[in-house]
Amino acid sequence: MASLSDKLMNGSPSQTAAAPASRIKQNHINAVDQKRIATIKTAILAEGDRIRAKYPVLAHQDAIGMGILLFSMIGALLTGWAYLEGALAWYITIPVIAIFLSFTHELEHDLIHYMYFRKNKFMHNLMMALVWICRPSTINPWLRRHLHLHHHKHSGTATDLEERAITNGERFTPLRVLMMLDLELSVVLRILKVPKHLRFKALMRGAIGNFPLATIFYTAYHAYVAYWAIEAAAWLVGYSVPWPAMVTNNVDLANTVAVLVFAPNLLRSFSINFISSNMHYFGDIEDGNFVQQCQVLNSKWFVIPHLFCFNFGSTHGIHHFVVRDPFYIRQMTAKKAHEVMRANGVRFNDLGTFTRANRWGNDAKAMVPVSAQ
Fold first, then answer.
1. Is the CB of residue 145 less than 8 Å from the CB of residue 110?
2. pLDDT tens digit string along 194-222?
3. C-alpha span between 138 and 94 (Å, rounded)
4. How far from the centroid of its chain's Cα atoms is residue 189's Cα?
């Protein structure tokens, strides 16, 4: 029986068997990069072991993960309370909450790799549920696990739906920027590229992944944007829209939700989508070649988005080589890891990726199967 991840990646078993040519064979890596990968892995593992030995408290990984989660949730709640009490302006509240939410994204990623409460299913699933509630604009994390583990196996290929969903491999246009901000809109726009006979199935898969939190979030958010768009258009022509009392009586409440929920989540998600989709390469890399999968984005130009995604572009490439370390240890190993990665062919701050549609080489159309479109 096909696994759920297979179904999510490739459709039905019969469809998968019928089109093997669209898959890039895994682990056909050139000999030079095989040696480089081994060298980088060895160095990162050794540095992680050194840091764990230096700081014995890191052995309490479950407690640290839960502590960070509680800190993030309490911090976001206290920030919201301060805003409601008039102690914080909206332009301070939004980025502060977004920063706290960035911790929960990293925790979800680590949970997907079973880094916290591996042997305690209740606590593990409780943490998964809480990080999802903290970020209601995201897909079901249990379903994301299948997408993400597949991403590690086939990063940068046509079947890497996790990265492609956040626009990796697309030409950098204003539309791509909008799609990184609004992933629900991204799904709708991508449906138009799917063959007509597969569109309903694709929509259903998207609906299942977004249900219920992201569905509620984006329905409310789009209604809010539509209200103010109509109000702005009416004001320009000197017209007063006769809204029902149910709408006018709840405008202040909607504005509060926008500050406390909509804006922080959109700021955080745009930041991680922008960094992640541009630090990963797509289309013309060797399947399974960690040297080619990611670059390190740690330029000063990315300080602001990194503030809202916990320095993701600087450290996520480390994770592709060594999966075992949680996000805070990757930060601690980054200096040594970057040295060995740079010496062994990993790219740093390759800003040309923005003009090459994230291709490794210079051909923006290289190795993109027709079926991927």
1. no
2. 788 888 888 888 889 999 999 999 999 99
3. 18
4. 19
Is the separation of the CB atoms in 267 and 325 below 8 Å? Answer: no
Torsion on CA atoms 132, 133, 139, 144, rounded to nearest 10: 10
Conformation bin of residue 63: beta by default, left when phi > 0, alpha when psi is -120 to 50: alpha
Q: Where are the alpha helices (DSSP H) in the chain?
A: 4-10, 13-18, 31-54, 61-84, 90-112, 121-134, 141-153, 161-165, 174-181, 183-191, 196-210, 213-236, 245-248, 251-257, 263-279, 290-293, 303-307, 312-321, 327-343
Give the span between the Cα atoms of 183 and 173, in whole angstroms: 15
Token reading at 294: 């990611």
**Nearest-angstrom CA–CA distance, 210 and 208:** 6
Q: Are 241 and 230 in contact (CB under 8 A)?
A: yes
| Angle (nearest 5°) at CA 328 between 326 and 332 | 115
In this structure, what are the phi and psi dihedrals at residue 368, rounded to the nearest 5 degrees?
-105, 105
Tokens of 252: 């202040």
* Per-residue pLDDT reduced to its tens digit, 69-106: 999 999 999 999 999 999 999 999 999 999 999 999 99
Q: Report the distance separating Cα 40 and Cα 91, nearest Å.
A: 42
Burial (Cβ within 10 Å: 0-12, 13-18, ≥19) of residue 156: buried
Tokens of 323: 């999966």
Tokens of 11: 């459709």
Number of CB atoms found within 10 A of residue 191's CB: 15
What are the beta bridge partners of residue 294?
280
Total count of residues recorded for the chain: 373
Q: How many CB atoms lie within 10 A of CB 26?
A: 13
Task: Enumerate residue ranges in the chain where pLDDT < 70.
Answer: 1-27, 364-373
Q: Which residues, 6 or more positions from 74, have their beta carbon under 8 angstroms from its beta carbon?
A: none
CA dist., res. 212 & res. 81, Å (int):
26
Picking from 97, 105, 149, 113, the residue whose alpha carbon sits closest to that of residue 131 is 105
